[in-house]
Design goal:
Dihydroorotate dehydrogenase B (pyrk subunit), domain 3, 6 helices, alpha/beta, Elongation Factor Tu (Ef-tu), domain 3, Rossmann fold, about 15% helix, seven-stranded mixed beta sheet, 15 strands, about 260 residues, six-stranded antiparallel beta barrel
């Protein structure tokens, strides 16, 4: 596994995905080592006077040929608003890669479930699974059509399904209401998920009920990324663990949900 590094990365692209999300493509100053699906980066936000702590973001993609890392970011406050104004040629200071990763399998049937910007680590995961010979199903959920992200990009790795709460696209309802889950209980041997905690809990309970292995990527606030500040502690069957160092990926069987 790649040792964590602190680098100033050059902004190659700042791509607006929709009204509230953007992707930063960042070029590393030296050849990238191994980065695994599920790991994250801590970004220093220098252009926001009210943002003192680094902000954690899942690594959305890695391109070793271009030597770049991409981050999918949702504008939620002053820090992410400042990052959304980043220009090509600017530099951002990152600590990366941090945390553990999803467990990759070389066979079987996998389902990836992302809610909103919870698809951020799912893209890199789908890419890695596809390279290992697994063609995953991808289920994306959103409040409305405008919130559905990167559907066409996911199609290169597997079949894509989606839900919207208002019924403006795909099946109406929550991701756990989608017919692919209701009609395919025995199809999958593993489910990976990331998104709002209520959604992940619902997916986790579904997996436990149907005896399907399930890994969740928690989105707890992780101020330091190295287990020092203890603001990201989560209760598990092994006691209280730091999401940033012991996670962010956990098997749902080990979480006290």
């Amino acid at each position: 596994m790649m040792k964590k590094t602190i680098h100033d990365l050059k902004v190659i692209k700042n791509i607006k995905v929709n009204y509230n999300n953007f992707i930063l493509e960042l070029e590393a100053p030296e050849p990238l080592g191994e980065v695994l699906p599920g790991q994250f980066a801590e970004v220093l936000v220098e252009k926001s006077e009210s943002t003192f702590l680094r902000r954690p973001f899942s690594i959305h993609d890695v391109d070793y040929k271009k030597n770049t890392i991409s981050l999918l970011i949702q504008v939620l406050g002053a820090g992410t608003q400042a990052l959304s104004q980043t220009n090509t040629g600017d530099f951002l200071n990152l600590v990366y890669p941090l945390g553990n990763s999803f467990s990759l399998q070389s066979g079987g049937n996998a389902l990836l479930i992302g809610g909103g910007t919870g698809i951020a680590p799912m893209y890199f995961l789908a890419k890695a699974l596809h390279r290992s010979g697994v063609t995953p199903d991808v289920l994306i959920g959103s409040r409305d059509k405008q919130g559905l992200l990167k559907i066409d990009d996911f199609k290169q790795f597997g079949s894509v399904f989606f839900t919207t709460e208002d019924g403006s696209a795909g099946e109406k309802g929550l991701v756990t209401d989608h017919s692919i889950l209701l009609n395919s209980v025995t199809k999958y041997n593993i489910i990976y998920t990331c998104g709002p905690e209520p959604m992940m809990k619902s997916v986790g309970f579904y997996a436990l009920k149907n005896d399907i292995d399930c890994e969740v990527s928690l989105e707890n606030m992780m101020a330091c990324g190295v287990g020092a500040c203890l603001c990201c502690v989560v209760e598990t069957t092994s006691g209280n663990l730091c999401t940033c160092t012991d996670g962010p990926v956990f098997n749902v069987k080990n979480l006290k949900w």
